[in-house]
Design a protein that fits this description.
The chain has 340 residues and is of the alpha+beta class. A seven-stranded mixed beta sheet has the order 1-4-5-9-8-7-6. Strands 2-3 form a two-stranded antiparallel sheet. The longest helix has 40 residues. It binds phenylalanine. The site of phenylalanine has 11 residues, from strand 8 and strand 9.
């Protein structure tokens, strides 16, 4: 019993003397570890003569509890002191302005696509998403280009290893998808998205690029509607005083077909490097939807008509921002991208 009393005294004195958490933990091991003094004292109960065993056991347990409480109180105090210290040392000035976040930005193609989308939205066109992996049927045949049609040469094609499955060379196959979904209702949509062509990459042509297709179908849709829509678009995109020039052209899926030029927004038609001294910039191909294509979409070419157009947003962005190399768009050069 006297051993127990001195053990308690010693343990308490040493506990008072501990200065930090490490010392506290060491103290805990010394008294309560596997070979700790309190642990051993408790284990000794069996050796105590039976007459004293009960009293010894009770006292040993009381000491164990008292020391454990004292230890935990001291540990808690220690932790609180540490917390106070670190709060004082690492005080946060909540009035400091935050660090600015580095924000990304939209790719110039995305910006251009959004501008085009909002202009056509104002003209009543909805956006229709169409697939990038197409079949030969939709990309060519239903657009009035049977196999071996020489016009297919206008679109050098990436074929997949599955016969008849290819990467769309233009957004025009989307016309078929929209028509088959909407028929017999009238249509006014644009179809933006990526197209792919097996071509040599140069300053002027890429193997992947965006197009925005437009399609309007209804009763009494005329070429005047087409020209008016395109002119309205060019003026919203490039400036109110833009002039639009329409040249006769050829596409298998439109008849008649046209190519649309706009007076150079850089030199106002006087002739400069951007328009190669011609004063004109080509902005899109277009035309009245071919009767065969209308039929393939489910429409009756004798009662409805429509116009379609297709343009390249990267080309448009090059014009708008004076970019001279189309390869910049997918080169992932931040020095280029950060300018937009
Ligand atoms: N699909 C044509 C091209 O890629 C563009 C076009 C679309 C022309 C719609 C006329 C009508 O060149």
């Amino acid at each position: 019993m006297s051993d127990l009393a001195s053990l308690e005294q010693r343990a308490l004195t040493e506990l008072q003397a501990t200065a930090d958490e490490a010392a506290l933990r060491a103290w805990n091991t010394k008294y309560f570890g596997k070979q700790g003094e309190v642990t051993l004292a408790l284990r000794k109960v069996g050796e105590v003569p039976p007459a004293e065993r009960k009293a010894y056991g009770q006292e040993a347990n009381r000491i164990k509890e008292a020391l454990t409480n004292a230890y935990e109180a001291k540990l808690a105090g220690q932790k609180e002191r540490q917390l106070k210290q670190s709060l004082a040392a690492e005080a946060i000035d909540v009035t400091l302005p935050g660090r600015p976040l580095i924000r990304g930005r939209l790719h110039p193609s995305t910006q251009t696509l959004r501008t085009i989308g909002s202009i056509f939205a104002d003209l009543g066109f909805q956006i229709y998403r169409s697939r990038e992996v197409e079949d030969d049927l939709t990309n060519f045949e239903l657009l009035n280009m049977p196999p071996h049609h020489p016009a297919r040469d206008m679109w050098d094609t990436f074929h997949t290893t599955t016969p008849g499955v290819l990467l769309r060379t233009h957004t025009s196959p989307g016309q078929i998808h929209v028509m088959r979904e909407y028929c017999p209702r009238p249509i006014r949509v644009i179809l933006p998205g990526m197209c792919y062509r097996y071509e040599a990459i140069t300053v002027r042509s890429e193997i992947m690029f965006n197009q925005v297709e437009g399609l309007a179908i209804g009763t009494n849709v005329t070429m005047a509607d087409q020209n008016g829509t395109i002119t309205a678009f060019a003026r919203r995109m490039f400036g109110e005083d833009r002039q639009v020039r329409i040249r006769s052209s050829y596409f298998p899926f439109t008849e008649p077909s046209i190519e649309v030029d706009m007076d150079c927004s850089n030199c106002a038609g006087k002739g400069c490097g951007l328009c190669k001294r011609s004063g004109w910039l080509e902005i899109m191909g277009a035309g009245m939807v071919h009767p065969t294509v209308l039929k393939n979409g489910g429409y009756d070419p004798y009662t409805v008509s429509g116009f379609a157009f297709g343009m390249g947003p990267e080309r448009i962005a090059m014009r708008k921002f004076g970019i001279d190399d189309i390869r910049q768009f997918w080169a992932n050069d931040l020095r280029f991208l950060r300018q937009f």
